[in-house]
């Protein structure tokens, strides 16, 4: 039946504006012009390179390195390398401009959530800024990696990175790494900060820039950090932080006392006294636990549902006792424990929905790596990392804004729901929009002569590399 429907009719049914698809390249140029002034230095307008780099991230299917982007966009490699690694235009300045644009969109005005997470990328050596042997969640082990901490703004219909910070391990600030810090261009005023401290910096920036959001959601690396939770609470920011299963909570208000030692003196170490002390996992089977099944959102497998239970609990940090919610989520046999400072009258369904936004930053991390080339980035300097981040966020926002625009103006035929016997149709993916952009703004194809010249360039580089190695082998040993 579908095969007999003309393709133009099918395109219309699925809410894809064919005329606008053909103009996606022009849309990208108009979009980029809104941010062009952010890619200037005091003496130069280098925004033309920014557009070519952005279009390369969006259109090239693989190997989105500086060299390949310059080649595909017909820009001299040395110029592109200078633009990304050495030019003093401000990556953070561009990110502020993007946040100013995102916060004005109606989609994020009512129930947007900030989501905090980190992501690691494997590196061949510790030459790149911040690269070190550290935990790589993607690989599930300690490996030579570069780690970024990222902040997404998310709703069920749209989500995008809006900020990021490079995590620089503490060893990088020792005397042994002084030359490496200078070589990679790490700012002299940069000091060691933990991932939760970097996350707090980004949240503060979002507040300062008036980014609208209802709450902050974070995994257990951040959720178990008492200082971060206290800072958020002190700033009046609602949070949902995952915590480990062995986290200690109290059902009655504990007392912090200083017992006397055997010699009759008061101990300097406080002791917590409470009748109802539990590890959070012990409350799962508590006789008073009350589970509720809540439908969260549609997903590819149907409707995402999970069971939730919550308690008003006490937690202790140092000598301070605080009242928080413990929210427990159960997906089949998988349990997640969350501490939140949501107000006592917050509905369980509201808490469940807000906490469940953490999925969206995982989706953003995956899209930025697989679809926008984040994990193909190859550079040594800190400046290049910041520039890559800003342009990746810009690419992500271009796709998110395009999807939202079409979703609002180009309704899908309700008959599709009946025809496919479903209740919800899937949203356009990042890969879908990139495929349409490549059709509207195709990359130039190399001629045989250009391909041969590229091969010769590779051969020459390999020959020079061999020459260099031979010279070192022949050098007299001292």
Structural class: alpha+beta
| Cα gyration radius (Å) | 26 Å
Q: How many β strands by DSSP?
A: 14
Biggest pleated-sheet summary? 10 strands, mixed
Distance between termini? 81 Å
Shape, per Cα inertia axes: globular
Helix amount, in percent? 25-40%
Poorly predicted tracts of residues? none
Mean pLDDT: 91
Q: Which band does the percent of strand residues land in?
A: 15-25%
Please tally the helical runs, counting DSSP H or I stretches of 4 or more residues: 17
Provide a compact summary of the structure.
The chain is of the alpha+beta class and 478 residues long. The protein has 17 helices and 14 strands. Helix content is 40%, strand content 21%.
Structure overview:
- There is one protein chain.
- The chain has 478 residues and is of the alpha+beta class.
- Among the domains are: 2-35 and 44-87 and 385-461, no CATH class; 239-340, no CATH class.
- The chain has 17 helices and 14 strands.
- It has helices spanning 7-13, 18-21, 24-33, 47-59, 66-72, 77-85, 91-103, 178-184, 195-208, 220-223, 226-234, 348-355, 358-370, 382-409, 415-420, 430-440, 448-474, and strands at 113-122, 132-136, 141-154, 159-167, 215-218, 239-243, 248-250, 255-257, 271-273, 277-279, 292-299, 302-317, 320-331, 334-340.
- The strands form three sheets. Strands 1, 2, 3, 4, 5, 6, 11, 12, 13 and 14 form a ten-stranded mixed sheet that branches. The protein has a two-stranded antiparallel sheet with strand order 7-10.
- A hairpin with a 2-residue loop joins strand 13 and strand 14 (334-340).
- Helix 5 crosses helix 6 and helix 7 packs parallel to helix 14.
- The protein is globular.
């Amino acid at each position: 039946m579908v095969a007999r429907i003309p393709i133009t009719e099918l395109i219309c049914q699925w809410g894809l504006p064919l005329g606008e698809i053909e103009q996606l390249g022009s849309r990208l140029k108009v979009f980029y012009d809104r941010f062009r002034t952010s890619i200037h230095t005091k003496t130069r307008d280098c925004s033309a390179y920014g557009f070519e780099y952005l279009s390369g991230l969006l259109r090239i299917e693989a190997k989105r390195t500086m060299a390949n982007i310059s080649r595909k966009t017909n820009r001299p490699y040395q110029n592109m390398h200078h633009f990304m690694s050495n030019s003093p235009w401000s990556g953070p300045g561009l990110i502020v401009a993007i946040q100013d644009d995102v916060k004005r969109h109606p989609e994020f005005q009512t129930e947007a959530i900030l989501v905090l997470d980190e992501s690691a990328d494997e590196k061949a050596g510790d030459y790149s800024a911040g690269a070190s042997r550290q935990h790589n969640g993607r690989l599930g082990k300690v490996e030579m990696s570069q780690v970024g901490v990222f902040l997404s703004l998310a709703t069920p219909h749209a989500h995008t990175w809006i900020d990021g910070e490079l995590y620089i391990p503490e060893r990088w600030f020792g005397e042994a790494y002084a030359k490496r810090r200078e070589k990679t261009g790490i700012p002299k005023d940069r000091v060691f900060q933990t991932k939760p401290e970097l996350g707090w910096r980004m949240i503060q920036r979002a507040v300062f820039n008036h980014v609208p959001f209802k709450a902050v959601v974070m995994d257990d690396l951040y959720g178990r950090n008492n200082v971060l939770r206290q800072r958020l609470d002190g700033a009046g920011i609602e949070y949902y932080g995952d915590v480990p299963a062995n986290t200690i909570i109290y059902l009655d208000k504990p007392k912090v006392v200083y017992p006397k030692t055997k010699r009759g003196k008061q101990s300097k170490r406080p002791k917590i006294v409470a009748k109802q002390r539990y590890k959070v996992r012990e409350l799962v089977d508590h006789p008073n636990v009350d589970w509720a099944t809540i439908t969260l959102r549609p997903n590819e497998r149907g409707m995402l549902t999970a069971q939730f239970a919550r308690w008003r609990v006490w937690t202790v940090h140092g000598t301070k006792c605080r009242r928080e919610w413990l929210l427990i989520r159960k997906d089949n046999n998988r349990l997640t424990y969350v501490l939140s400072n949501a107000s006592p009258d917050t509905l369980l369904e509201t808490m469940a929905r807000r906490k469940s936004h953490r999925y969206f930053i995982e989706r953003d991390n995956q899209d930025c790596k697989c679809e926008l080339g984040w994990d193909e980035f190859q550079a040594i300097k800190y400046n290049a990392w910041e520039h890559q981040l800003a342009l990746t966020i810009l690419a992500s926002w271009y796709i998110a804004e395009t999807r939202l625009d079409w979703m609002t103006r180009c309704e899908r035929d309700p008959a599709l729901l009946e025809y496919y016997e479903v209740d919800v149709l899937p949203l356009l993916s990042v890969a879908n929009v990139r495929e349409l952009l490549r059709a509207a703004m195709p990359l130039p194809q190399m001629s045989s002569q250009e391909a041969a010249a590229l091969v010769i360039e590779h051969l020459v580089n390999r020959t020079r590399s061999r020459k260099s190695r031979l010279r070192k082998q022949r050098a007299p040993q001292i």
